Amino acid sequence: MRRSVAATVTTTARVTDLVGSARALAPLIEAEADAAELAGTLTEPVVDALHDAGLFGLMVPEVLGGHEASILMCIEIFEELARADGSTGWSYMANATAASFAGSFTGNGAAQEMFAAASDRMPVFAGMFGPVGSAELVDDGYVVNGRYGFASGSSYASWISGGTLVVRDGAFVEGADGLPEMRVAFVPRDHVEFLGNWDVLGLQGTGSYDYAITDEHVDAEFTFPLLEAVAHRGGPLYGFSVLGITSSGHSGFALGVAKRALEELVQIVAGKSRMGATPVSDQQLFQHDLGYHDAALRSVRALVFDEFGRVEADLVAGREPGPAARQRLRQTTTYATRVAADVVRFAYTWAGSAALRNPSVLGRCFRDMHAGTQHVFVDNNTFVDAGVTLLADGS
Fold it and tell me: Is-above-0.90 flag for pTM?
């Protein structure tokens, strides 16, 4: 028997310590990491555990049975899961952020249908939001076509999204900003053709498959404008909008992987020495660099929580964050990714061949972190955008 949205298993009352719940999953996630890489996607025991812990409802509005957690709690949970395994942290942050968009930015009827469809579990969302597809405007919605890539966490998702450019009579429809209108559509997974094509250096366990949506009629309620998304339900969390919510996921991922890399390094160098050399842990150069990179990671973590906390405080108080405050979320996320990558490279280099031979947790951290740096969301152009905004703002 189907449950109503209000009776969905993932409720705030059922799970009071979400960060602790995420941390408690680490032993299982670590034990399944090799199998996930081999399968190319998260294993069933890990997906089941995320469901059982109520974590797929992290960023879903309370009115739909979710937790509607604070942005800082979300970052902590992304960090914890990525620390346990990069692919798990990445897949989960993709699922959680997509669920927040589906839960808050779609129409009322669509949200009720999507979130009431599960019998005893929160529905899972995945897909690519970049506007590489097309949405032909028709009287009662859109006809969506597109071939997409990088659908992280899609193998166990029930709804798949696709970013589009809206067209009418073969011409782009102009948005409020004068650019072609960009719109995201959600479709049931059985209306999507999955194309595989996930053979990569890092983040191998994320199931970030290619997929195609073909001549799919989508009611307007199951769509939302990518850059001008308006929250139809939920509180301050959704005031971060698409870019801010996505930033939280990438920040947490980077912090978690880098944290694990340092932990692994400290264990590896205990008693490690190269032929004819002083033990690594006794070398001043290593001690200096470890202290430096530890400070760098702790500092950028503080920056992440400070910037996201500032914007959250504004939203809770009913104040609209200014352009510079919003741009700093992207700036901070890219900077955190760069610092984390430096930390992981340092750890990998000093670990020597211990991180080279598989299986190696540190080797996986190295591969996953450098796969994460290739995402367009943390492209160095975000620093350029930040500079332009800061100059215009006078901050």
Answer: yes
